[in-house]
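INTERNAL TRANSFER SHEET
From: sequence group
To: structure group
Subject: 50S ribosomal protein L30P

Please process the attached sequence and return the structure record in the designated field. Keep the field labels unchanged so the import script can parse them.
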Amino acid sequence: MNEKMGKAFLIVRMKGTVNVPYWADTTMDLLHLDKRYRATIIPEKDNTKGMLDKIKHYVSWQEIDVFTTKELLEKKARKGGYQKITTEDVTKLGFKSTDELAKSLADGSATLSKLKPLKPWFALSPPIHGFKRNTKKMYGEGGILGSHKELLAQVRLMM
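Return from structure group:
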């Protein structure tokens, strides 16, 4: 858990699909966030920050660490047929272990959408015991939307 924070964002869609404007829906489709509580890991770039700023009223994000990335890969990563990934799948991708895959995802050198047998998203459950903050406000206003400082702890309750 003392791993250095990476150069990639964990993005989680917090709002549903109803009454979402076309431009926000298109942006979330590009990020592979087509349903509520879908999560993805995106490398930090200027265009990524612009996309996040555009859809900040529908998603939460935070820089991800290697520990959380590894936990997401082991518990929630899926391949075709919605099956869990195995060590053989990881070696076919060119990585020695899930630790190495998690490290490359967390530092931004690999992207989920380029790792072909894997789904480019993680399907999370609603959080156990609900959200502790308001779900309709930005993080700075006491809510969960936008750049969220406690998102990694929240995601652990959603796995």
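Handover comment: The mean pLDDT is 92. Residues 12 and 39 are 4 Å apart (CA to CA).
Transfer complete.
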